[in-house]
Write the structure tokens for this entry.
Amino acid sequence: MAGMTSTARPYLNRRLAEFGTTIFAEMSALATATGAINLGQGFPDTDGPEEIREAAVRALRDGRGNQYPPGPGVPELRHAISAHQRHRYGLAYDPDTEVLVTAGATEAIAATLLALVEPGDEVVALEPYYDSYAASIAMAGGRRVPVTLRPDGDRFRLDLDELRAAVTDRTRLLLINTPHNPTGTVLTREELAAIAELAVERDLLVVTDEVYEHLVFDDAEHLPLAGFPGMRDRTVTIGSAGKTFSFTGWKVGWVTAAPALVSAVRSAKQYLTYVSAGPFQYAVAEALALPDSYFDGFRRDMLARRDILTTGLTEAGFGVFRPAGTYFVTTDIRPLGEKDGFAFCRALPERAGVVAVPNAVFYDDREAGAPFVRFAFCKKPEVLREATDRLRRMA
């Protein structure tokens, strides 16, 4: 073809050769093409609090953040993050040396792994895992070592013996996600204590993705791993405004950690985006200062939506794992006579007018995830009811 050059080597860096277009982009495009209800990608179909949206407008009009904000994040937001961690969990972080604002949790994950992992290092991650974990580990030259959460009744459970066995002399860090996407598992106090003991015993760093910290249901409780004995100085905690305030497009996330760890992450982060979301940072600072009643109401609202979706999916014949956290439901399609999540999800928009995501994309062992499919319930109740009605008719 005119104008093209030939090369013996593929254009894409070999570390990323296994990663193509994300499943979220593929399934969202399928939803658009078919007009199906999109319960695949995890974004709300309504905006968050009006006063927070207006706070962003006010910042834009006042000229705050329209030019490059400070590299670590605007002081107002760093102080708000520090105050949030202290108020919610009793964790004290210096806003000047122990807080870093990022372009969403995705950049926080990438910058943290690029900073802390060298080629050949092993990273133990809970499987199934959010897809950016695998890509970020690969970009850093590390080797991912999955520890699989396995079905146990109506939840997925971590095998602590399997986790301990996965740690070797080459292990650099543990990558923990709780509340866990996509399974909805919330690690218990006993499980987190065991992880902390292992990290201290083997002198490991731990990265915890806690973006769903405010979405825990029933008797579950979110407990930051950094609060456990011996973990304060070895844990990088990742948070995000997108999930908590329903402004996912703003891409405002953060890292809290000891000064040396934040400094390392900032060294990598400054060469990714350097800074981002200037005016939105001021709005998120106000959001984090909302009263506890906001967070309680947000959780109650999502709990009601969870129950609409889990009830409807059960009535449609799916095997349902009732999530203790996040805004996702993992289902088993084998009771429907299906076994291939990829094929099921690609056919579902035409069969039922609904889009879901196959969990196998979150596994190294695709067979282990093959029969599981994830649905998002961060949608209007009437949308969830219509989706489950369609799935019942299909069944």
